[in-house]
Specification:
Strand content: over 45%
Number of strands: 8
Structural class: mainly beta
Radius of gyration: 12 Å
Mean pLDDT: 90
Distance between the termini: 27 Å
Order of helices and strands: EEEEEEEE
Number of domains: 1
Largest sheet: 6 strands, antiparallel
Low-confidence stretches: none
Number of helices: 0
Strand order of the largest sheet: 1-4-5-6-7-8
Shape: globular
Length: 66
């Protein structure tokens, strides 16, 4: 399951702020995550919401966790 709540694409790549709902193997259930994409890769802070408030924040630089 994959649902996009807010999206923008640029040259067929994800770009800007996105809110996504998808299955997480780490949590073993559907979660919501939000953050920024730049030229199709995650960039900046990404927040993970398995049951409500933010459970985890990861910081990405050009698609790689810092």
């Amino acid at each position: 399951m994959f649902t996009i709540y807010h999206s923008k694409t640029k040259h067929h790549l994800k770009d800007g702020y996105w809110i996504e709902k998808k299955y997480s193997m780490e949590y073993g259930k559907i979660i919501i995550e939000d953050g920024n994409y730049q030229d199709g890769v995650k960039d900046g802070e990404w927040n993970y919401f398995p049951d409500g408030p933010v459970d985890k924040i990861e910081v990405y630089k050009n698609g790689v966790i810092k």
